[in-house]
């Protein structure tokens, strides 16, 4: 049976990217060697990483003065690299969930953290207004999309201080005005590739302003200077990322991704709002297009397991909600076809017919 | 033409590991989803990482009290994680090449570094005797195999202080008495897998003895506590590592790898010593089985480019020496078949016939 992949990450990737990757693992472009057995210093791999970088610049329309880096260690390593490189005395954080809190926690090792907005009062079910940004903080850190709670900020904030954004789970799902950010980072394993590579878009002139010594691998300047090749990069993950970005471009770029994201999310949210057995968990204005969270309506609470079982029998994968929210989460990343969104809706409708 | 892959890393991997990986990228064990599109929290991936860990424990006969970790960031990140976690005031380092020096450089950010042995006087062409280990240092750091210079220490030192070893380029090429080490680490991209994952074998009771705050991702205890799943691990690279280790086991384990390494290196070194056009660069007692460095004999210095061209025409890949040594380097990692070693020798002999 066809599987509909709603995993929260690692998650669905374009089929053509998988096929090209599998081919390259056996033989890269007919050179008689596998992608993963060639030197990262070879002209073949240099061409791959160069094209990957060029696709980032083009797809997000990244202005001059910025570099795109491909690092290991995941977004979680960025939680400490950001303050290591940017915090002199104080930073402002917006608290919108587990990942935002983890980012703030690491920053506390390097200076003062001021939480200037939070949605913890309602279990992170809305995106708080970000106002009164303190001008004496070294930077403002936000998490644009909250994978666990299903909230999203789709506005590029006007910040009087350098703006740092964790965009792990919504990068490339809409055009972004990169010029409004000092640094954007994220794990690749949602919209742009497999687990194992982290992207960083950094404005070069924000670097080199702190006094603390920074270990080479944690210093963004190391990777800027060496074009992400200071040490052996995660070659395979970068290759697949390139294939994913080629697909994004072929589909029409981030504007096309945004159009699909809007339509795909609407199909699912409309059904959640219509179907009497289900309730969305997030305030409508904050609803994420990437992670759609919902639970059984009060009256049908005892049907949760039954729905999970039924959905599974229909080929739905990964729709169990995170333990912090419960219920269900349909992650609808770039590569998820509309067909899968409709299959989930059909599933919800059939379940309602049988059970409501 | 068949390629003989002498790349220094990323490098040759067993063909069966490549084939199984390519299959899993398309469909993991017939589940209808790709290895790289499933959750790292799925039972399928948990089984993969568990088996990978079990293979490490079995193949290296790792004693109780140790954990094996799979991290991102490369061995270069370990250069700072080691002192972050282990250095109170002072550490001893053995200086045997570029990587050893880089490791010592990062340690200097955390305390005093005492270089207790070095082979810099002869451009790292021998492995220095390691004696007079200072008992007041917090640990001793060694690099067992020096990829660039082709030297190797195959003795498990008796150290009165915790012994830390970068085994990036010779792990799994011989049995190791793990009980003599406090910590062993390395990038996978030589004998155990593709680029993108770093292995760490750590004795648990050496952790938690420093006072400095450690960022979560740089704290070994984080990864010990969470079984390398604190954040999303490099799933693909771990999968391929498992396939490589299954192959090592099927071949007869590290003893079989050692036997092959000895025979394979002998075939090449014997030819270097016999052939009047070539000279080995390393003192015989320190010669690495993994990276075999040689240059043209003085009389034939002008033939270097010609030999590289000829070798290339015969299918040899990756034999150009590192710029710090010049000449040639034949890396002979676990997966390199004897057939390739013999093909290189045939190449050298034919070149001698035509040119000497």
UniProtKB/TrEMBL annotation, chains A, B:
What is the enzyme's main class? transferase
Cofactor: how and how many bound: Binds 1 pyridoxal phosphate per subunit.
Q: Which GO terms describe its cellular component?
A: cytoplasm
Domain Aminotransferase class V intervals: 5-302
- Reactions listed under catalytic activity: O-phospho-L-serine + 2-oxoglutarate = 3-phosphooxypyruvate + L-glutamate; 4-(phosphooxy)-L-threonine + 2-oxoglutarate = (R)-3-hydroxy-2-oxo-4-phosphooxybutanoate + L-glutamate
Which cofactors does it use? Answer: pyridoxal 5'-phosphate
State the source organism's domain of life: Bacteria
* Chief place of localization: cytoplasm
Q: Which residues form a coiled coil?
A: none
- An example molecular function term from Gene Ontology annotations: O-phospho-L-serine:2-oxoglutarate aminotransferase activity
Pathway field of the UniProt record reads: Amino-acid biosynthesis; L-serine biosynthesis; L-serine from 3-phospho-D-glycerate: step 2/3; Cofactor biosynthesis; pyridoxine 5'-phosphate biosynthesis; pyridoxine 5'-phosphate from D-erythrose 4-phosphate: step 3/5
* Residues annotated with N6-(pyridoxal phosphate)lysine modification: 190
* Entry binding sites for L-glutamate: 41
Binding positions for pyridoxal 5'-phosphate?
75-76, 99, 147, 166, 189, 231-232
Gene3D superfamilies registered for this protein in UniProt: Aspartate Aminotransferase, domain 1, Type I PLP-dependent aspartate aminotransferase-like (Major domain)
Report the locations given in the UniProt record: Cytoplasm
Q: Name one GO biological process term.
A: pyridoxine biosynthetic process
What's in the keyword line of the UniProt record? Amino-acid biosynthesis, Aminotransferase, Cytoplasm, Pyridoxal phosphate, Pyridoxine biosynthesis, Serine biosynthesis, Transferase
Give its E.C. classification number.
2.6.1.52
Q: One Pfam match, by short name?
A: Aminotran_5
Q: What's the family?
A: Belongs to the class-V pyridoxal-phosphate-dependent aminotransferase family. SerC subfamily.
Instruction: Tell me, in a sentence or two, what this protein's role is.
Output: Catalyzes the reversible conversion of 3-phosphohydroxypyruvate to phosphoserine and of 3-hydroxy-2-oxo-4-phosphonooxybutanoate to phosphohydroxythreonine.
What's the subunit arrangement here?
A: Homodimer.
Name the UniProt record assigns to this protein? Phosphoserine aminotransferase
Q: Which organism is it from?
A: Candidatus [Bacteroides] periocalifornicus
Lineage summary: Bacteria, Pseudomonadati, Bacteroidota
Per the record, the gene is serC
